[in-house]
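FORM 12-B: Structure-to-Sequence Request
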């Protein structure tokens, strides 16, 4: 599942998913990676009322063939995931991987590793270890505690899990989905274990024009002759 229904509040008025990255919309990069991954059989793409037609056209132009359905997203990320999961209920897969369409530099290899870890452990997410010292603060921004950096990882996507477990976790919290910012947090709330798969910092999320510029630099580096 590729999520394409999010807001783009920090992009200066443009839709980050449709922003140009080296000649193609940002979301197309994610779709191509899932298309190229042998571990992925079918795709569901969530969209908003504002970008649905453009994302459909972009996917068709890119020749993405694995898409089973386009689904209207919800009022928050977790609700969009729930809508996507419900669209798969008629022929449910054993595993499902969820990816933010605003992470365009994901690779087929990373997707496969997360899916493989989820197959072994029940659920897994892409993540990178923290390199900065992190602080827990209160509402007044006073430091409350300093967690051990060795135990802190930055969550990314894709995040994969058994389909039934992920659907159940979302349905159980249907009245409070806005509190959950990723799939792993819902699984954690259901007391289900989630394995971390080390990813790359290049798997960045586009949230601002600076992020888009950074992604373009990474693309140029990947395309440069060895």
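FORM 12-B RESPONSE
SEQUENCE OUT:
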């Amino acid at each position: 599942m590729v999520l394409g229904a999010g807001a783009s509040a920090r992009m200066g008025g443009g839709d980050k998913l449709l922003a140009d990255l080296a000649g193609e919309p940002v979301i197309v990069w994610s779709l191509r990676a899932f298309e190229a991954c042998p571990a992925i059989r079918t795709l569901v793409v969530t969209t908003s009322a504002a970008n649905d037609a453009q994302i459909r056209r972009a996917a068709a132009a890119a020749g993405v063939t694995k898409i089973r359905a386009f689904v209207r997203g919800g009022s928050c990320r977790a609700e969009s995931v729930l809508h996507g999961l419900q669209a798969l209920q008629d022929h449910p897969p054993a595993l499902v991987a969820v990816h933010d369409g605003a992470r365009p530099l994901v690779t087929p290899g990373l997707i496969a590793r997360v899916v493989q870890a989820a197959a072994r452990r029940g659920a897994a997410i892409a993540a990178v270890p923290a390199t900065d010292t992190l602080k827990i603060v209160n509402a007044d921004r006073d430091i409350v505690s300093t967690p051990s950096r060795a135990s802190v990882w930055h969550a990314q996507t894709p995040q994969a899990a058994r389909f039934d477990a992920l659907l159940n976790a979302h349905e159980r919290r249907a009245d409070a989905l806005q509190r959950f910012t990723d799939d792993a947090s819902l699984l954690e709330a259901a007391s289900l274990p989630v394995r971390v798969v080390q990813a790359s910092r290049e798997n960045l999320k586009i949230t601002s024009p600076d992020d888009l510029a950074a992604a373009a630099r990474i693309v140029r580096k990947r395309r440069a002759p060895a």
